[in-house]
Amino acid sequence: MLVDPALAADGGKVADFWLDNGMEVIVIPDHRAPIVTHMVWYKIGSADEPPGKSGIAHFFEHLMFKATTNHATGDLARAVADTGGSNNAFTSYDYTAFHETVAPADLELMMSFEADRMRNLILTDDVIKTERDVILEERRSRIDNKPQAVLVEEVEATLWQNQPYRIPIIGWMQEMEQLNRTDAVAFYNKYYRPNNAVLIVAGDVEPETVKTLAEKTYGKVARGPDLPPRVRPVEPEQNTKRTVTLSDARVSVPGFLTQWVVPSYHTAKPGEAEALDLLAEILGGGNRSRLYQALVVKQGIASSVGAYFQGTMLDDTHFTVAGAPRGDAKLADVEAAVDAEVARIASDGVTPDELEKAKDRYVRSMIFARDKQDSMARIYGSTLATGGNVQDVQEWPDRIRKVTADEVKAVAARYLVLTHSTTGYLLPQPKTEN
Hints:
Distance between the termini: 74 Å
Number of strands: 11
Helix content: 40-55%
Shape: globular
Largest sheet: 6 strands, mixed
Structural class: alpha+beta
Strand order of the largest sheet: 1-2-6-3-5-4
């Protein structure tokens, strides 16, 4: 079907259709430049992994770049480079995505590569061992070697008591070391199917052309068995305050972060997720936010502060506030000041002026997103891979505009309760006396 062109970059209509094998296709026309972004989103992420197999989703993202029955390892990268384009992939809790940006004339070639590796990978023990070593080294460099990353990992493992979001996307080292060919083949056969994928094409193309090419390439891939609903363990009620402390010799400036479990766009009641988005923007979304103005500009006690809400998740998500002291200021003072601002919004709410300005910034951010094919493809892809649809994306600015000050106050009071939070402290290593 063709849907409202509200979020098409240059007025072209966004198309949404399905192939016979169950693959959904979204086309976002943008004829301002002769390029096209092609993304395949699989509805499989780290939160869907079997127990004891953490890291298999990310591991398989790597394996997708290996040889198939039709192409040698590196053929895709060379084909993209030959056209002057770019390609990559990423794994999240709820999805794994692969993308290329090329000239429109090369779109069919990109589709043929992606359709080929959807089912035709050659997974030998040697391939598994080599790439497993790569992801183990990636964990060492990206997580184990960075105290801030270790703290975030430990905070999230403490915040979530039952939900698989507590497990890091890259995996736990001891489980990653045991991943093998049997694990990889089982994962591939279960999840890498057209009926578990969404294709997003944004750029200098027409929906009719994309449909013809998609049927010619992806349409030849057999539909896989229907997958059961993505029902995950239910998180128990949060009713305690927990803390995590990491002291590390590599830390020179201390910091803290506090997280709460809150609804996502997929699990929230109408208007709640939009209110949480605006709450994060007003509280700590940039240099105009309450936290920045109060702690950095006026009091001068913080070097950095922020508030974040990751709303595009399949299950409930978390709301985060964070800060670090400046100069001789104490970390405890920064934390107390942040907590006070959170409590102030929960008790007194926000002003009409700051709410309207926050709405303006959010709606403008969506307008600016139209200027980048990649941004539009990611917005649609992440929404569709986490239970949303095209209409959800297109109606989002209007829903943001409808949020009231009372709704922002209500979500702050309901969800940002300090006695039901998890706080992590990153501290320098205490000095030992000789």
